[in-house]
Amino acid sequence: MSGSLRIGMPDFLLCYKITPLIRLFQQQAPKVRLMIPALPCKEIRSAIINGDLDMGIHCNIGGYPKTIIEEPWSSYKARLVASADAAADTFDFITQHQRKNVNLITSDAGSLHQQRLLDYCRSCDIILENNIDMGSLEAAKISVMNNLGIAYFPDFTVEKELLEGRLQVIQIPLDNVPVPVICAYHKNKEINPAMRLFKSLLFSFDRDAGESGPLS
After folding, report:
1. What separation in angstroms does the CA of 43 have from each of 52, 63, 197?
2. 67-114 pLDDT, tens per residue?
3. Residues 6 or more apart from 6 whose CB is under 8 A from it?
4. Other beta carbons within 10 Å of 182
């Protein structure tokens, strides 16, 4: 098996979930050139529609035409977190009609969990100081730990920091609402052997497996 395979996914999946699968794929198809750009969900969607990617794995933000196949793959929950040094009033996201002097830090502003958080804040009339998009989950996480603002992360990306007390959870009603993740590809694109193998490994993969943290 040879050739190339282009798969887009957000960095939180690439760094925390998919790495063991990539290792397995490389063991079975060492001659396939694998290109996996870490992209925001909306950019993945555009690249799939335009044919620039063979496959996309991302949270289901919708907006695909009927020419795209969307297969449910997994889901995750998200946690709104703040620095351990954050002011006490930072942690109240239940009281309505607030003007909070705190920044919202994002790494993928177009992701489904981020959109749900913004919808929740609008419904409660909770207005934040500013939105800072870091473009990288790790940069966003470090910024939150340094008390630059708060962030809404997939739960599996902040488990270690929560256990160590470097981050604290801000309770909101969305805490237990799952965020669906899909595998998307163009229905008219030929599924070559490399794509077939990756897809087979993906759907036989333990969705709860993954790295305990980003690659070093």
Report:
1. 10, 12, 24
2. 999 999 999 999 999 999 999 999 999 999 999 999 999 999 889 999
3. 35, 36, 37, 52, 53, 54, 55
4. 20
Q: Write the burial class of residue 169 (CB in 10 Å: 0-12 exposed, 13-18 middle, 19+ buried).
A: middle
Bridge partners for 69 per DSSP: 185
pTM for the model: 0.88
- Residue 30 pLDDT > 90, yes or no? yes
Residue 210 above 90 pLDDT? Answer: no
Two tokens, residue 204: 């036989």
Distance, CA of 45 to CA of 48 (rounded, Å):
5
Extract the tokens encoding 104. Answer: 């919202």
